[in-house]
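[audit] Reproducing an earlier prediction to check determinism. Same input, same settings, fresh worker. If the tokens differ from the archived copy the diff job will pick it up downstream; this log only records the rerun itself.
[audit] input (180 residues):
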Amino acid sequence: MAKEKELSPKNNLSEVQDPEEIVIQQKEELEDYSEEVPEVHNLIKRNTSNASVPVDQFDWDAFEKESVYDTEKSVIEDQYIQTLNKIIENDIVEGTVVALNKREVIVNIGFKSEGVISINEFRYNPELAVGEKVDVYVETAEDRKGQLILSHKKARSLRSWDRINDAYDKDEIIKGYIKC
């Protein structure tokens, strides 16, 4: 981690400086600091041409056009989107049980929202608890309501067929029960 520096305005009551010089000094300090911490560099690219002018001469149009916050917002949105997992529909992924009640299980797969699965799909596992890892099948990344549609039953079924196909490829014998 980079050394932390304290950025000071260098204003002393005994020593009066020109406001423009103060702005220039502070900008130089920030630029020095931004070399050590790259994220700061993007945040200090502000135009200081209006910084020391009287209020009646302040160019509000230029100030509003140079909205750093809009560019910062888009950069932050891009960074957020990159942190999200890329979810592929009709794929099996591992999720974590976040909450459960009598009717449903809420599973987090690292997407922007959690998926809700009926508790009936976990009948084989009555001891299911919060924090457990479960395989889920992504039916739909987002429906009309923005909900993530998951299925644990389909994930188990597809995994079973994968195991059967692997056993067939390796000429293994599978022991099982047939229900009538």
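[audit] rerun output stored. Observation attached for the diff report: Helices lie at 19-36, 38-43, 60-65, 68-83, 152-169.
[audit] end
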